[in-house]
Amino acid sequence: MKKSINRALNWLWEQHFPMLCLLCEQELASTSPDHLCQYCRLALPFNVGACSCCAIPLQPGADHTNEIRLCQKPPLLCGQCLTKPLADHAVVPLIHRGNAAHLMHRLKFNQGEPEGRALAHILLTHIRLKCPNRLPDLLVPVPMAYWPAVKRGFNQARLLADCLGRELDLPVAHTLLTRRLGPSQRSLSRAERRRMAPDNFRWRNETEQNALRGKHVAVVDDVMTTGATARQIIKLLRLHGAARVDVWCATRTPSLHQ
Ligand SMILES: [Zn+2]
Ligand SMILES: [Zn+2]
């Protein structure tokens, strides 16, 4: 009932205010859940041929492909994940550059909700393609420290997790973890990010913490750079009994060495 009312309201809205592509601003011919025209969508830098556990691109140049492809081969693994896998499975559809980085920048610094929904929709499409029968029991957005969250006014990881939770009908654990205030990650080098204090994240909600035992959890974030943040949270979740932890992230920086 609620969905059909929303659809009717959307239809009425579109009759008066046609939807424009978020990138080229051309009018969209039909309702597009990611707010992108077909040309801009196909020109996005998709993260193809990436490691299954940390999503680092493994095949040089593969990210220039202009189509979404499903890999039917055995899972690809990077050198680090062969011995120390980051997550049980990582879904990160875009390389963090060009228009993908542009959408992310507008989401983070201009409170771009349409850009957030666009990135969440692209992530959702890849989740449905790559793990249709392996959805988690719970989504955990990466928390922001208190003051940065107040300053920015919202948490982009939470926005992505909420969109995904609504579409996939999955619960989102907003109050499971809290983050200690540290230096802004953007001010840190890659080496410093990797050395980040291991107790940056703490439990906030004991009831939810106890309910983790045996559960399949997906950690949701906006950009993955070194994977240090995800590694800390995954370690905490596993310590408290999570049986399987995946990472869902919108974009991935292209190389550990950049
Ligand atoms: Zn466009
Ligand atoms: Zn890897």
> How many strands?
7
Shape: globular
> Which CATH-level-2 architecture of the largest domain?
3-Layer(aba) Sandwich
Task: Estimate nothing, just give the exact number of structural domains.
Answer: 2
* Main beta-sheet strand count, sense and barrel state: 5 strands, parallel
Mean pLDDT: 83
Q: What fold name goes in the CATH topology slot of the largest domain? A: Rossmann fold
- Give the CA-CA distance, first to last residue: 49 Å
- DSSP summary: helix tally: 10
CATH class term of the largest domain:
Alpha Beta
Classification by helices and strands: alpha/beta
Give Rg in angstroms: 18 Å
Q: What is the strand content?
A: 5-15%
Bound molecules: zinc ion
Low-pLDDT segments, ≥5 res:
62-72
The percent of residues in helical segments reads: 25-40%
**Strand-and-helix sequence, N→C?**
HHHEEHHEHHEHEHEHE
How would you sum up this structure, described in words?
With 258 residues, the protein is an alpha/beta fold. The chain folds into two domains: 1-43, no CATH class; 45-252, Rossmann fold, CATH 3.40.50.2020. The protein contains ten helices and seven strands. Strands 1, 2, 3, 6 and 7 form a five-stranded parallel β-sheet that branches. Helices cover 38% and strands 13% of the residues. It has helices at 2-16, 38-42, 79-83, 98-109, 113-130, 146-152, 156-168, 190-194, 206-210, 228-239, and strands spanning 89-91, 94-95, 138-141, 177-179, 201-203, 216-224, 244-252. The N and C termini lie far apart (49 Å). The structure holds zinc ion (2 copies). Residues 51, 53-54, 56, 77-78, 80-81, 86 line the site of one zinc ion (ZN). The site of one zinc ion has 8 residues, from helix 2.
